[in-house]
Specification:
- By secondary structure, this protein is α+β, with helices and mostly antiparallel strands.
- It folds into three domains: 111 residues, no CATH class; 41 residues; 126 residues, no CATH class.
- It is 36% helix and 26% strand.
- The protein has nine helices and twelve strands.
- The strands form two sheets. Strands 1, 2, 3, 4, 5, 6 and 7 form a seven-stranded antiparallel sheet that branches.
- The chain is globular and about 75 Å long.
Length: 305
Amino acid sequence: MFFRNLTLFRFSPAVAADLDRLEEALGGHRLRPCGPLELSTRGFVPPVGRGEEAALIHSVNACTWVSVGGEDKLLPAAVVNDELQRRVRKIAEEEGRKVGGRERKRLKEDLLNELLPRAFVRSSRLSAYVDRKHGWLVLDTASRKSAENALTQLREALGSFPAVPLAPEEGPRVLMTDWLATGRLPGGLALGDECELRDPASNAGAIAKCRRQDLDAEEVKEHLRNGKQVFQLGLVFDDRMSFVLGEDLVVRKLKFLDVVTEELGDSHEDAAAEADARFALFTLELERLLAKLEEWFGLPRPVDG
């Protein structure tokens, strides 16, 4: 269950105390199947196991894992529009008149009512966990929209969940540009093998993307001398995990290195025991990384009141 991406929010100790009722709150917001005339549904699904009897939360120490599930009808707009045009032409040919805007809208609604019950359904899930001790909400996505949608589901279930986006006191772009330019990185942190550099003066400015590249190379330094800044930077933390950190402080391409995965072993009694072990190891490793992000970029936890 190791996450591949991390979008982060923070919450206060008072909010953490309110999360004691999370399991009860999610119970009334399970994912239900799409109805015949629904385009999509959202709700919570068990992070471990399947079925109505499976729990909607999985907790280890102060961290609680939840999953937001979704069902979406696959009804391509091109298919709908082609069939709508066919029906409009048929009316024009058989009745000798043009179809007005209001009638076209009604025809489209009728068409959707016909097609939706027969559409394929695509299932999805987005995992997240809350660290009540340190005030982090961690979502396994690099998409701000997907993260906000999942947060909305949590807020609807709880009635209120004032988790806030990160507000760094140190500019991530400036700080990461200095790391790359000088090679002076915080202890335990090393450069990876990719970066994205942009001219910050213009949205249409030049972009340089490096993959599988020695970031100490002269050609990378030349981009920096020409005014480009770091928008994404590959990093390795304590020789235990690698990732790409964005100037939005979204962690992408997170990968635990062999030294971490080897600690899991393969002697777990059952799937639940394995899930416990993986989640405990994962959250413990991330606890150290998130503490360092807080230190490097100035990400104070919100205070109560």
